[in-house]
Amino acid sequence: MLMLALVPLFLAIPLLGKYQDLAHMSESAARYLAFEATTARADGGRRTDAELAHEVRRRFFGNSDAPIKTSDVAGDFATHRNPLWVHHSGQPLLVHFETDVAVHTRSLRSGSQPAALTLGASGFDLPDSELHEGVVTVRPRDIANLPPFDALGLEIRRHQALLAHGWAAVGADDLADRIAGGRALVYPIAPLKLLGDTVGRLPPLVLDPAMQVGDIKPDVVPCDRLEGGC
After folding, report:
1. Which one of 28, 45, 179, 180 counts the least CB within 10 Å of its CB?
2. What is the pLDDT at residue 117?
3. Contact 132, 108 (CB under 8 A)
């Protein structure tokens, strides 16, 4: 009787591991989506969710040795499935790729995200129109005759957001000025720096050398190490 009672446990433990593997793959797929949402095609447009969905289903939720090919589509047959994602009776957890794996991308204004406090008007003053989000939703099928997995209705959803902005600086000095000119969340020592710079103006007899709060010495490559010199 004890062994019979443990049978569901023996079935559930590997199944939970497979669900975790699906969740991990969903995280990776969402990261891929966020990056792909920022890229433009040769014609200047961006790829549609339908195009990205084909790639994600084939490359992330298909067989692990699937070749990377343009316009490849995952098929609902064994050779295109991950052999790990099956339950105890050998049936796949993802039966129909088109309905069981969904993707969605969108561009957000950073004001709708907590990151706006650091990236937007309160921080680096980056533009709020280049925040892109990728969302992957995976719906494994319920498993008949295995409570509670027969009515679980599991939905795994993962999302990643990426701010696509180069924040290009002319040089080390420009980069330092951008950080020093940031708001309190980015440069919290600003009040201390103001006090230190004020005290630093006192005669060298009091402070020698003068205090320089937040001063950063860039690591400059010596001229003799540069090809052609400085």
Report:
1. 45
2. 45
3. yes
- Asked whether 33 and 56 are in contact (CB, 8 A), the reply is yes
Terminal-residue alpha carbon distance, the chain: 83
Is the previous residue joined to 148 through a cis bond, with omega within 30 degrees of 0? yes
131-138 sheet: strands from edge to edge = 101-108, 131-138, 156-163
> Residue holding tokens 């924040």?
167
Report the C-alpha gap between 113 and 123 in whole angstroms.
Answer: 14
Task: State how far the Cα of 152 lies from the Cα of 21, in Å rounded to an integer.
Answer: 17
Contact (Cβ atoms closer than 8 angstroms) between residue 136 and residue 101: yes
pLDDT digits (tens, 9 = 90+) for 155-175: 999 999 887 766 667 777 777
Q: pLDDT of 27-81, one tens digit each?
A: 999 999 999 888 876 676 778 899 999 999 999 999 988 887 777 888 888 889 9
Q: What is d(CA 34, CA 161) in angstroms, rounded to the nearest whole number?
A: 6
